[in-house]
Amino acid sequence: MTSLSTLPQEIIDLIIPHLTKQDFTACVRVNHAWSALFTPSLWSIVRLVDRTIFDCIDANDAHKALARNCHHIRTFETTDAPFALCLAIQYPSLSHLTSLALRLKDEPLSLTKIFPSASLEEDGDYAASYGNAVATVRLLMNNRNLRSVSLNASCFKYRFGEDGFPLVISAIHVEHLEKLEISFLDPTRNRNDGDDDDNDISRTIDTTYDAGQDFNRDFTKAIRIHNAVAEFECLIELTIIGVVGKTLDGSRLAFLARCPHLEIIRLDRLDNIAMTLVQPLLKKFCPKLRRLDWTNPGIEMDWSIAGLLRVSKAGWRVLRLPYMAFFNQTSFSALMESVETLEELKIEGWRAHWSSALSLMQGARNLCRLEGVADGERRRYAVGLVVDASEAYMQYVEDRIEKGLDRSWVLGSSMEYYQMQINNVPRPDVVCRRDGGELRFQPAELVSYRLDVHRWIYTQLARMTGLKELVLGVPDYQSTVLATYGLDESLDSVELERALSSHPTHIFNYMSLEFSLESGLERLGGLKELEVLDVKSTAHRIGVAELEWMHVNWPKLKVIKGLVTERRWAGESEAGLKVKIAVEEWLAAHPHGIGSSFIPTPSTISA
Known about the structure:
By secondary structure, the chain is α/β, with parallel strands linked by helices. 32% of the residues lie in helices and 11% in strands. It contains 21 helices and 17 strands. The longest helix is centred in the C-terminal third of the chain and has 17 residues, at 573-589. This is F-box domain-containing protein. Residues 1-46 form the F-box domain.
């Protein structure tokens, strides 16, 4: 009989990733052989977050267990400063880490209070004065194989407030580090990321950057020092987290001079001065940048946004951008400089003209993912990615006839996720708003182009044969915005739309694509990989006939978000209610999914 401990190591390596911490704990108790086999895995990850060592285990037991097993730890993460200091000083065998995350809190440190029976290098009073910077430096210096390091502001402080940032950065071994995160946020500050979302546009700029003004006299000196230090040989991913409204010491960005292989940069909450300083550093010292994740900005001017978008010398492949009140033509021009290399683009708010979005889709040949404002990220005044369908079609016809140019979209089979609001589609069938008010007048010449516009848009979408998610609906509000309307976010989509209909700021897309067979839906028959269709808050005309067509032609389609609607935009609530009931009955017969790859209910099969 073969036991687990006698299996080849290759088989054991396949089994271990599927076991939980509880599984490892049980396994080490079976016998000595199993204990020897699974103890390294049990101790490979040690996380103590938002708790202290005293909350978990008896101090003496912890001391003995750590003494036996410290050499097994590969990932260490904690917010408990005394625990980090103890490991740094008392356990030199903790030297095989590959991942270190210290998000320490400012609090008194004392080794004697942690392990009273432990023999200390120095007396307790002296140890208590070390501070987090010394603990951080020791952990960094003892571990030469670190591949990932995450440090917060408290890691750079000595016990009595002296700054230890230069020493901490210099203590990181450069041979293997691939990922670095540095946060300057106050660890004691409890801030919700979205608290100030609706105030971005009105936030006062407290400081204005003047290139001739010396904000940091040590900045140039710091650059020279870092130029003389060994570069990070493998560092490809860097995250810098600042504090909006608080000026960041520019010398703390000088280490970018040691990051020539950086490919991914994440910037969060950087103030205006820090943003101005970081741009030339990235452009000069980081020539391989290909991905930018930017979140929680201050007020950035159009030229400043453009400057950040131009720091990549090879062109961005991935851009994930926040809501920017001043993202205008200069910023868009900078964005378009990377249009041929872009593979993923996310912009949480888009204030550019619809023709800009159209230009993007006519040039981004390698794009795989296009995102706008996601559900729950929507602000009261943010504008999503929008194309004016009628204008786009008329421009296409005009350019083809008068200039011989083809203005078709280049997005093709590489696209997997596409999010865009397609507006101003001629819809003579839309006769009223959901609240009963009159819809704006549609010119007769546009109504006559109804089918032409629909089918041209369908033709553009049909090129994306690898598409998995097609998002054309209006994104959901943030819960905080719903609360201002006195609405419960737990309402289902139909109830929520009905409740929002009386609010003038609610955006319902009445001039949307119909998605009806009559309008030319069959042109999308090639989207065989489609899994999700989002038509929330749009005047779609998807009924049972369309669902039957989708069942056959979109075999992987799991769900249609916003499918169920009373169609009050058609002005015939009774007729709309009949469609709603028929759709719900069809869905009840296909509970696992809409496409043919999902097994229908037995009752449907027998029928």
